[in-house]
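discrete fold record:
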Amino acid sequence: MHRDEELDLLQECLDLVRDKRPFVTADEALIPVHTYLDPDRFRDELALIRRSMNVVGHASQAAEPGDFFTRDVVGTPTLLVRQADRSVKAFVNVCRHRGATVELRESGRCRRFVCPYHGWTYQTDGSLAAVRQAEGFPTLDIDGTSLVELPCVEAGGLLWVCPDRSVGAKDLDEASRTIVEDLEWLGCDDSLVFASEERLWHANWKLIVDGGLESYHFKIAHRDTIAGFFADNVSTFKFFGQHIRSLLPRLSILELADQPKSEWDIRKHSHLLYSIAPNASILVQERHLDLILSDPVSPEQTRVRIITVARAPGSRPWSEKVQAFLSANHAFTKQTLHEDFELAEQIQRGMASGANEYFRFARFEGALTEWHRRLDERLGL
């Protein structure tokens, strides 16, 4: 983000908050409820997500050569490993012998991976290093047998993987690269993971996305957490391909009217929210970031991981004061997001009742309307 763009965004939000008016960009829209319930549509959505570059974690989770972590990426067991040349590779975490899971740990550091079924051993670059009683496999080409590699990109402090290696994305597109530039400007690539939480929510993945694309609910749904910090129903957004950058102004933005523009700071007076298709969001706060990763499990279930990321402390660990601050903010962010996710679970239960044929999106909920339109377009609907 260039400085001129930062100032323009703040000025736009300052005007909206001062005039007490929402950001109106669309006509009122009706979204059929069945789009959240239809198992055939969910299958098509999963196929679309599988063909895309998915954010699977922060680069600091595999910081040094031999560091690894495992994830389920849209149903594909995945192993990510930092290589000796400091690049990161991703593999299908499945043994080439009989298909057992090679690495069962969530994270760690090692020089080799040993399958717990028959002991086949793989180097960190995925190559097959050893086979017990190899004479029993006279046709096996050891040099030509490796863990199956998946497209993997490290950019903007994030690790991205495409679980469909046959027809899926091989690299980031131009829109994603634009988002990466913003993330680098925000210091995401010079940060470390402080804490994380993973939880299964009984809600369709689109309901999880919906909750982050409007601020109409803030004063009601978040009355016990963040409501007092933000203007009522004021937020702006911009699409970058399938990604969205939203700006949520704090009430303190009114102070900018009396400050020279040289002192304006977007992180001090707003929250930035990047909705990174197909599965991630990054909430940018004044002194840290929160990475929210969603993994659709079924039409009624979504696994969500909340990761707090903060600037690397340098040669020394974070001070006790900084750790206390980050712990408190991680807990507060979880509490706020849980309010959204609990509402998503309520909506999921309500959809089955048949009470609503459509959901109604307001003229000031344009990001929701456009996000659903673009998703339908990508599905060929």
Remarks:
- The helical segments are 3-19, 34-37, 39-50, 174-185, 205-210, 218-221, 320-351, 366-378.
- The chain has a mean pLDDT of 96.
- The first helix runs from residue 3 to 19.
- The radius of gyration is 22 Å.
